[in-house]
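In this supplementary section we document a worked example of the pipeline. Step one takes a protein sequence of length 894 as its only input; no multiple sequence alignment statistics are reported here. Step two produces a three-dimensional model, which step three serialises into structure tokens for compact storage. The input and output of this example are shown verbatim.
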Amino acid sequence: MLNRSLTEHATGVFYGSGRLAERLWTELVSPQQGMAQDRWHILQGDCYQLLVDTLDAHYPRRFRLNDVRRLMERMCDARLFIEPELPWLDELFSQQLMRNGDMICYRETEVQAYARLAAELDPTLLVSWHLSGWLNESPQPTEGDISRVVSAQAPFFAPPPNPFLPHAEGHVHLGGVATDSAILGAYLLRAGGCDGLRGSDKDGNWLKNEKQHLDPQLKRMRQLLIQLLEHSTRDQDITLQLNDPMVVKERLPDWELLAASHATATVGSASWVCGQFAQAMMRGCANHWLWLLLYLCCLYRDSNLSPSWRVAILCWLQMFNELRRRLIMDGQGLTRFVERYFQAPLRRGGVSLLQDNVRRLLVGREDVAEVKAMIGTFSSKFVSKLAGAVANQSKLHATIPPYIFGEHEISVEGSAGHYLRSMERWHFCGHFSRTQRQKRAPGRELEKLWKSADDLLTGLSRHAGWALPEFLCGQLNQHFQFHPARWFRGLDVAGDENDLRIEWFAPILRWLRRGFVSRPDAERASSGFHLSIHAGEDYAHPLSGMRHVDETVRFCEMRDGDRLGHALALGIDPAQWVARQGEMMVPLDEHLDNLVWLWHYATTLSGRLPLAQQVLPIIERRIARIFPFTLWLEPPELDVDHQEGDGKSGSEFVTVPPSVLFRAWCLRRNCHHLWQKLYDDQPRNERERCAVPDAAVINNLSDIAARIYRYRHQHMAALKKLPLVVVRAGSEWDGQALYGEHAKPIRGIINDVDTAQELEFMHALQDYLMDQYDEMGLIIETNPTSNVYIARLENHSEHPIFRWSPPDESLLSNGGKYNRYGLRRGPVRVLVNTDDPGITPTTLRTEFTLLREAAISLGTARTVAEEWLERLRRYGIEQFHKNHLPVFDEKQSQ
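The serialised model returned by step three reads:
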């Protein structure tokens, strides 16, 4: 979770406080009576107190009240609303952004501070405020100068890309690219009225409450915006307009009429900028949001503007930034991300922002991207829209047919060839979803998962629907071979990894990428799918995350070139993670899996690592204590109520060696759903052989591991509730105190202790697994900003990429900082990506810049850091082209 300073928090609160926005709104609709000077003085005092209280409530007892009050006094002084100045915007711009010719971009040496600021308020406000000051400079800029500068600004105000250094995005969710301003703009600037957010009978309480909060906010913002856009057409006080039912409007002005009404306005004035904004809306320009905020800033700077209109502008900005923060993920865990951010009401509104997404993904003319989306997304209809967006971004368009016969007559020479090459700048990685809408036995989801896999293969082999103008009529065109299925190159499992484990998806993934699959006669030979699977991103315990990664590698049979998404559990030091987490709440079955898995690797490393020998007896004793409470040695119909842990169940008296429990864990690579359909028979077809490779073992009930595998699934289907284990860091003596009478659950809770030796062994095990996976040819997809926002990291310098692949490889020498036990032989392969560059505001080049600054802050020489990042950039490009297959291919001679 991103750690920010007091001044950064104070800025965010001042420009994005819901409580302050409410107070200002009340002032607008129900103004205080009395002298005007007293009115604004009272409002300034109220703002000061509200800001102090809000900041202290958001971050309780974190900052000294003295410091908070002094900061807020500087922001809420006697000039607020009276004079055309807003606090700190000029200072923040000069510190973190700069002019570079016509471009405004963040200072690369201050990129971490800029990233922290972007989490609090839209950087577009800083740029707009700066530009509004430029419009008042002498000599005043011309109309052409202003239009050129505004149009030139890049997404997120990143420095312009070097056209000779393309970047490859290898892990980005298409649904997570759309930025906050684009989403809010789609609601606030939508034609017609503000009809409110869409609801559903299936929405939970949180979603319903969120919509109840957002709907009036959006309505107020739209109402204010309408009045602000028409400010120059009236001289009335905005208070009278907001309270007069004959004046209040629900619909935005007609853009053409609004532009015409300001056609004769003085260049650079607020009215003129309002006209330019209206023209940008008419043309659908990507920079319309910048024009809007520039207009509001110019209006605020108008020396003749009454204080009530400035109150209205600040109120609108506060509501905007407060809603914007709800669209940015900045909190612990994937469950919060899936339920509260990715599924936020504003993001679920069905707003199509594909062009804006592509604009942010393919910034450079040679940039490429592997985009992630649900496997059901891939269709001719969707790909044609994406192709159009990529063509617009590349400044290319499908060629007009030279003859009356149509696109199939177009040759691939000239502009058509350039157009088709732009279509090769991306491909898909389709993902299954782990997230369960309703908590129920996972087995019920497997039928749907297998059906979606069948639908995917059917869709990829279907040719109907692809003869579209965007593809120059596809297979009907005699000048090339068209293979639309080649756009689909990868498979993933995304979502909340705490919901459904990889064991449910692994058999499907193995089957989908089996070799020698039947293809149409005209199809050329090609490589299969690569895997790019989320694993070890969010976890209740370091062992859970590490085991999730290992399950993914083992059960999915990952191989050279496959990727692990995030994999933070392989790099964040367990002791550091535990110290920040404190108590760890782990379901009993997950805790047992962790211990059994740890025991296996302690046994494996016992001949190489004395520390492994030390922890083995501790782990074995913990397993023996925990296992009886699972009741996995008996069918659920013989189960007794064990939540209070009376210790009378029959399984308690059965000692099962950890080796047997580990074999039972390995059997989870089999699809239990398809095994049940075998009725104790052997697999008969290719799907069953891929999905149930250990059917003969599972069918043998005399095998204790097979019994545990079968009965575990029966207990899960019966939705048996197991005790919760609360794990804390402690000493060996603390661990000994948990045996005897203290071994029983109390109110369904069991206590357990991770000793310092075990935490240190987990660190060594991370090194060992990194080395083994690297030898297998696996790649880790790093997503620095996403990880800092969601995981237990406070800044980019803490990101495990510096452990996986340090800029200075001497740190990996035997006994070095990142190779304490000599278990590693070199760096791990890594790719740098953005993940969700709208939900966590960033761009791909910003990620590289953030890593550069972080590396330098860790003591790395600048040249070493830059050489390291250049290797990572090239590697990303190499991996894209390694996995990409040409969709538009030259015709082969017969």
